[in-house]
Amino acid sequence: MIYIIADNITSPLGATTGENLEAILQGRSALRRHEGLWGIPTAVCASLFSREQTARMTREGMTRFEALALSSAREAMSRCKIDVASERTLFVLSTTKGNIELLGTDGETRISPAEAAEHIARALGLTTQPLTVCNACISGVSAMITAERLLEAGNYDTAVVTGADVACRFTVSGFQALKAVSEDACRPFDLERLGLNLGEAAATVVLSRKAPEGAQALWALEAGAVNNDAHHITSPSPRAEGASAALRAVASEGIALINAHGTATMFNDQMESVAIAGCGFGDVPVNALKGYTGHTLGAAGILETVLTAAALERGFILPTKGYGERGVSGRIDVVSALRKTDGRRFVKMISGFGGGNAALSLVRTEAEDAPEGKKAPDFVRTHNVEITPERVLVDGREVACEGEGLSKLTALYKQHIASYPKYYKMDPLARLGFVASELLLQAEGKERKEEDTTRGVVLCNSSSSIMADRAYETTIGEGDNYYPSPSAFIYTLPNIVTGEIALRNGYRGETGFCIMPRKDEALIDRIVGATLLDRRLDSLVAGWIDCTDDTHYEANIYIIESNK
Amino acid sequence: MEELELELKQEIIKVLNLEDMTPDDIETDAPLFGEGLGLDSIDVLEIIVLLEKKYGIKLANPAEGKGIFRSIATIADYVSKNRKK
């Protein structure tokens, strides 16, 4: 059992968990309609920090994003005693676009979320290499699950897990291009819902294998699961396979509520209702909190978990602001007014682009001495593929390949794969991952199944989605050059490559994407071992995949078989 | 109209990266989604951007587009009636 020993929420509603809960109990929302933001031609309804709030967080030498994440982590850490500088303490950052505001500026060298994570970790006094989880909208829950497993497996004793994102022209225009946003306050699960609103926030949980001395009751992470839909890169599956599998893996009888993702997009809420009702939880209260803070992207999973836990501790289930009449086909009990409860267990659900779905079960429990952890299963690498501009190796044997730079990938595609026209729509990172995985699976030589719930995809890099970021940026120029491209925006989420591989092969196991400052084989092995703590998985496609320009790219991926 | 249809085919091949396809491969009246070219929801959004950029047509709600995006012929018909550039 891994405990939450401290937490924080920093949003426009307040700088602590308590301030946020109080504001929400008073029915306050930070969503406002803004005109003319960042030169975007349409109105934007979002939850944004005021100039005064931003000024209070500002730190010399830190970007707005880093200062926000740092404020949240610091406040949480001030509420607990941990050995900050220990080699057994880890910092995990959850974000979708981190410092994307730096794109095209002098500060661009530190645009990778891994760089931001390192700055924040050092400012906090941590000494170990930080980890960034970049798994689109499910990042926050993914990050908590990853940290929980790394602690369970005995790799660390303590983890500070912070989720954060700031709103800017880049992200707001992208969600607009996807027609996912509403110009008015969002209405989760409602008949008249029109889309989501973005929100700026950071949230932190400090996780520990040991309960602090003198602690009586604590929240503990009970079980976590991630499953891909293998349905579509942006649309959730109408049959909700992934969300249902994740929910079934973690939910037990006697949960007081399910805190849903509830973005208020037509498809997300519909899909979640199908999953919840289909898993037999039609009678369990369901709420969604985006009517207060908007969709806070990398912070969302952590923020909403912390808020739900804080409300339950006070005996409340928070109402779903914006909800009036059920507009989803799954018969679920959406909470529209504050309810009393004495429940002590809940599930957080979340879904996102790339087809990922996550669920995490939490329980309020007596503090015990640290029970024995779980040993991560041993694993073996059965096949491997390396692709660089210099050479292509499959299981150590060189494969001849024409072309120069990234055009090599298309040559490999034509020669060894073909008949998957979607290849041409992918960005270079996804192309690299796709081609490498195809060569890898050809070497493995198994027949492709319709669906496979026992295999997952976990990839790592250091440059996130920099090529896709640059490509999208060219579509959001000034004036007559402002035509945000939805397909270009999608690939600015680096985890999309894991979704492409899952989609191609029917993989419904876990998909995840981690970013680290430098390629660190030992850390990758820890992440792989931790992922295999999900006993439903038999194998993974895993490894390193980085792509910065035409002459700098590297895929080094393998098939991992678990000896569970 | 034929000229516009040809232009639309060329533009759609370009913006949707339909590599290895030529305008001759796209039948003017064939469905673009599902069994036809097999385009998906992101492709629709990308075609909406194309209509705005090239013809000055703003389509705020993709739901309006259901009838419009049936085939090249229906898009051409809509563009010819609503184009601003």
What does this structure look like?
The complex is a heterodimer of chains A (564) and B (85). Chain A folds into two domains: 2-366, Thiolase/Chalcone synthase (Peroxisomal Thiolase, Chain A, domain 1, 3-Layer(aba) Sandwich), CATH 3.40.47.10; 379-562, 3-Layer(aba) Sandwich (Peroxisomal Thiolase, Chain A, domain 1). In chain A, 30% of the residues lie in helices and 24% in strands. Chain A is built from 16 helices and 23 strands. Chain A has helices at 17-25, 51-57, 64-77, 113-124, 139-152, 169-177, 241-250, 266-278, 290-293, 300-313, 407-417, 428-444, 466-473, 486-490, 496-505, 521-531, and strands at residues 2-10, 31-34, 44-47, 89-94, 131-133, 158-165, 198-199, 201-208, 217-228, 257-259, 285-287, 316-317, 333-334, 339-340, 345-351, 356-366, 379-387, 392-394, 397-398, 455-461, 511-515, 539-549, 552-562. The radius of gyration of chain A is 22 Å and the shape is globular. By secondary structure, chain B is mainly alpha-helical. Chain B is 52% helix and 0% strand. The longest helix of chain B has 15 residues, at 41-55. Chain B is globular, with a radius of gyration of 12 Å.
